[in-house]
Structures are given as structure tokens and as C-alpha cells.
């Protein structure tokens, strides 16, 4: 029984070695560049975190508009972005933090912004209206309630997170 010995020629050995070493060197050079290129995308943005907005003692039964600013990282671009919310306490003393962004086409709604509807949110763009709890008034342009912010109260301060869409009218 004869066994044929597998031999690697000098040419093949050089090919394998040079390909391996070349590949390793290319990977060593490219890895830091790739990491540098996508680094901002990997960093967490602060815009999704809970932000301190107002002392709870300042919240009344009438909706008030509060603003806060966050650093927003958009890839390589960092900017200050101002957010706002309409906040009030309902009859059960629960905090209701509503997004001011109209669910029709994104204008900003105002509380009691129209003399004819003094206890409703009013959107001046197309006469959209919402009840105090943020639910849209039927037969007006918006077709969904105002978003509700995620929130928590810590040490007497109201923190707001992301606005969350609600099901409804
Ligand atoms: S954007 Fe508010 S009613 Fe159209």
C-alpha cells in the first residue's frame, strides 16, 4: 500500500504565508479606521433619557407648558434641542404630561388657545382640538390623542422621558 505524501510546494507556502500576513496587516490597519468612522453611531444619545423638568410643587390643575434642553448626538453632530410638555394634575392628583405636538401634521398646540374653546388644547394650523386629557375632539383634523410622556418623580422633581403614542379616538 503506497501512501502519496501531500507536499506543499515552495510557491504554495509563500502564497499562504503572504496572504495570511497581508490579511492580518490589512485588518490591523482597517479595524481602528472602521471603529473611528462608526464611533458616534455607537454612542448613546442623551435625548432618550429621563430629564429633570420641573419641581412637582409648581404643577397645578391648569396645564402649563414647561421646556427643557437636551444634548442630542446625531452621528458626528451634537446640538442642543429644546423639548416641551403641557403638564397638569388631574382630579385624582395624577400628573399628566402631554406632548404639545399635534397628531395631525405636527404643529404645536396651545392650551385654551382659542376663545371659542377655552378649556381645550387648540392647534392653530388647521383648527385641531383636544380635550384637557389630550384626547382629540371628534370631527376635528387630528385623528389620535396627544402623546403622553414617560415620567417619574424623584426627590420632588418631575422627570420626563420619551413621548409615547396612545390608542384612541
Ligand atoms: S397640524 Fe394641528 S390641526 Fe393640522
UniProtKB/TrEMBL annotation:
<keyword id="KW-1015">Disulfide bond</keyword>
<dbReference type="InterPro" id="IPR006311">
    <property type="entry name" value="TAT_signal"/>
</dbReference>
<keyword id="KW-0408">Iron</keyword>
<dbReference type="InterPro" id="IPR036922">
    <property type="entry name" value="Rieske_2Fe-2S_sf"/>
</dbReference>
<feature type="transmembrane region" description="Helical">
    <location>
        <begin position="12"/>
        <end position="34"/>
    </location>
</feature>
<keyword id="KW-0479">Metal-binding</keyword>
<keyword id="KW-0472">Membrane</keyword>
<dbReference type="Pfam" id="PF00355">
    <property type="entry name" value="Rieske"/>
</dbReference>
<protein>
    <submittedName>
        <fullName>Ubiquinol-cytochrome c reductase iron-sulfur subunit</fullName>
    </submittedName>
</protein>
<dbReference type="InterPro" id="IPR017941">
    <property type="entry name" value="Rieske_2Fe-2S"/>
</dbReference>
<keyword id="KW-1133">Transmembrane helix</keyword>
<keyword id="KW-0001">2Fe-2S</keyword>
<keyword id="KW-0812">Transmembrane</keyword>
<feature type="domain" description="Rieske">
    <location>
        <begin position="87"/>
        <end position="160"/>
    </location>
</feature>
<keyword id="KW-0411">Iron-sulfur</keyword>
<dbReference type="InterPro" id="IPR014349">
    <property type="entry name" value="Rieske_Fe-S_prot"/>
</dbReference>
Amino acid at each position: 500500500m503506497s501512501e502519496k505524501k501531500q507536499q506543499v510546494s515552495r510557491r504554495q507556502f509563500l502564497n499562504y504565508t503572504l496572504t495570511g500576513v497581508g490579511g492580518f496587516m490589512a485588518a490591523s490597519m482597517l479595524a481602528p479606521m472602521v471603529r473611528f468612522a462608526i464611533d458616534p453611531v455607537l454612542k448613546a444619545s442623551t435625548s432618550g433619557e429621563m430629564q429633570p423638568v420641573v419641581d412637582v410643587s409648581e404643577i397645578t390643575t391648569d396645564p402649563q407648558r414647561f421646556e427643557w434642553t437636551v444634548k442630542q448626538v446625531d452621528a458626528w453632530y451634537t446640538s442642543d434641542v429644546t423639548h416641551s410638555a403641557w403638564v397638569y394634575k388631574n382630579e385624582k392628583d395624577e400628573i399628566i404630561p402631554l406632548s404639545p405636538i399635534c397628531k395631525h401634521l405636527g404643529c404645536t398646540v396651545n392650551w385654551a388657545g382659542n376663545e371659542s374653546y377655552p378649556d381645550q388644547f387648540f392647534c392653530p394650523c388647521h383648527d385641531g382640538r383636544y380635550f384637557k386629557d389630550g384626547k382629540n375632539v371628534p370631527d376635528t383634523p387630528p385623528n389620535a390623542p396627544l402623546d403622553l410622556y414617560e415620567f417619574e418623580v424623584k426627590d420632588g422633581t418631575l422627570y420626563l422621558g420619551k413621548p409615547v403614542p396612545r390608542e384612541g379616538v
